[in-house]
Amino acid sequence: MATVLASFFVILWVWIIPACLSIGVIGAFVELVNLAGGFPWYVWLLLSPPLYVVWLIFFLFFCAKTIAPVGRQHPKPPYATVPGAKPGVMRFAMASTIRSAVIESLPLIPLLTWTNWGRKLMILGYSSSLHLGKKLEGGGRLEDPDLTWIGDKVLMGAGVAIAAHFWTNLPNGKTFYVTAPVKIGSRATIGAYSVVSMGCQIGEDAIIQPQSYLEPYTKVPAGEVWGGRPAVFIQNRRLGKEGAEAEAGSVPA
């Protein structure tokens, strides 16, 4: 019974409350128009797509307003075991995961995220904070925006995934959850369909080649080019591969 009630309240908080508040805004607008004389039915039909966009924006706004207090009160823990964690420890982590799945399933979300303000609004719908630098270009999915720091003028290709957490099953049947912040320096480039794992640090002006996989806690120094699965050093942007090795002393200069 407790599980059923918990599931009901999760659905209520994740979907029903922000959806109903957004519907209330649209309903108030429609009522004001009707009081002013109204529109013919075919006008309302033509207005339905923009009204949905307005509903979507307000839905994300109310999602942001409801998720932020939870994130401040119950930030994602460095590690936790499920089941067995203290009450509330995993509340924001689970709520953020469910909320992001709901948001990304909505029509026109990809179109909205092509704009910087739309992207930020979408992310804040499932995260308590956002650490994006100026002039961020490209797409990509941030699993943990609250634990990801991205510098100025970073370029991310399509399909990039950045996660600051990791789940693993334990022999006793429980699940272990661990987090570590991700930091990406200014002017770095993350190639399309690359995966950046928890604890990774990518220096300024570094390049991660497309379809690369950075293992947890990988450190990419500034100005270096890495690629592969798992990603390894390829060359220094300034010196090239041979020059970097010579400078390090591994190859006679």
Q: How widely separated are the two ends?
A: 72 Å
Low-confidence stretches: 1-6
**What is the typical, i.e. mean, pLDDT?**
86
Rg from C-alpha positions?
Answer: 22 Å
Give the class from helix and strand content and strand pairing: alpha/beta
Main beta sheet, described? 6 strands, mixed
**Proportion of beta-strand residues:** 15-25%
> How many strand segments?
17
The strands making up the biggest β-sheet line up spatially as: 2-5-10-13-16-17
The succession of helices and strands, N to C, reads: HHEHHHEEEEEEEEEEEEEEEEH
* Helix count from the secondary structure assignment: 6
When the domains are counted, the total is 2
- Judging from the principal axes of the Cα atoms, what is the shape? globular
Give the fraction of residues assigned to helices. Answer: 40-55%
What does it look like?
With 253 residues, the protein is of the alpha/beta class. The protein has two domains: 130 residues, no CATH class; 123 residues, 3 Solenoid (UDP N-Acetylglucosamine Acyltransferase, domain 1). The chain has six helices and 17 strands. The strands form four sheets. It has a six-stranded mixed beta sheet. Strands 3-6-11-14 form a four-stranded parallel beta sheet, with no helix packed on it. A four-stranded parallel beta sheet has the order 4-9-12-15, with no helix packed on it. Strand 16 and strand 17 form a beta hairpin. Helix 1 packs across helix 2, helix 2 runs antiparallel to helix 3 and helix 2 crosses helix 5. The N and C termini lie far apart (72 Å). The N terminus is likely disordered.
